[in-house]
C-alpha cells in the first residue's frame, strides 16, 4: 500500500476529485495548507499599500492506494490539477505498512477497498 499525497491549487480540488472518482477511488482526505515553491509567493495591493505574501493558499490531498492502482491515482491527480502554470503543485508517494478500518477491524488492502 502507498499513501499518495498532493499539494495543489484550491480551485482544482473539484476537478481532481472528479478525476479520482472516475478512476474508482473511494476515499480522499482534504486539508487546508499554505506554502510556496519556485514562485515564492506574490505581491498584493491593499488600500493602496503594496505587500508581499510569501505563503500561498494550497490544499493537501491524501489517498491510500494499492500498488496496482498507483499509476491511475497519480494520473487522475495530474489530469485534474494541471493548469500549466507555476504553482500547480507536487505529488509524492510514501510506503504504508498497514491500515485498519476502525469500524470493522479489516486490515491491509481490504481496509482501503
UniProtKB/TrEMBL annotation:
InterPro entries: N-reg_PII, N-reg_PII-like_a/b, N-reg_PII/ATP_PRibTrfase_C, N-reg_PII_CS, N-reg_PII_urydylation_site. Keywords: Nucleotide-binding, Phosphoprotein, Transcription, Transcription regulation. This is Nitrogen regulatory protein P-II. Gene3D superfamilies: 3.30.70.120. Belongs to the P(II) protein family. PANTHER family: NITROGEN REGULATORY PROTEIN P-II, NITROGEN REGULATORY PROTEIN P-II HOMOLOG. It holds the Pfam family P-II. Homotrimer. It comes from the Bacteria.
